[in-house]
Prior knowledge:
Blueprint: E1 7-11, H1 20-25, H2 27-32, E2 36-40, E3 48-52, E4 56-60, H3 66-70, E5 76-80, H4 82-96, E6 99-103, E7 123-124, H5 129-149, H6 159-178, H7 181-213
Parallel strand pairs: 1-2, 6-7
Antiparallel strand pairs: 2-6, 3-4, 4-5
Amino acid sequence: MDGVDVRLLVPNGTDIPILRPLSKAGYRPLLEAGVRVFEWEGTMLHAKTAVADGRWGRVGSTNLNIASWLSNCELDAMVENEPFGHEMEEMYLQDLKNATEIVLDMKHRVIAPGELRHSSPVLTSGGGSTGRAAAGAIRIGNAIGAAFTDRRVMEPVEARMLITCGFVSTALAILFAFFPRLLAYPLAALFLWIALALLYRGYKLHRLGKQKTEPQ
């Protein structure tokens, strides 16, 4: 990524707290590739934005996941216009002032051309086997999603990953065909996890609604 300044601004939280460790696990491969990651400290909107080279901008609702690509109804506007791109770029740089940069360590922190290195506090990204395992799962999921959706050019290095996943899927299909209970228990745990997350979110929204309707 020599000469390319790529920065991501992401929320520092999620509506479903149990997903937070999995979301953070995806930071490490991005940071190791030279991408700068910032966590926003204010309130959030559903809209996603992107700007490139101060002339290309995108505003919309699409997420970078299979659900957005295949099933959800999403809408994005892409504009190639220098005044519009410069305005988006300025807004983005202003937003970075209310964000915390995530770094592996200060020695490996990426500095954009013309930017001064300063000693403002940053949050160090931790490692650990759990985080690496989750990051690996995300990479595998991205590769499988790309193989099915054909939304990006796949690299030869991903061939081994796809072939391995194919053999593993075949073995699991045979195993579950002869021992269906082995599939039932993980599915029960998965649906229980989803149910608890939805109940927690619903309870928070219910409490928020009651607070808004109560007289001050």
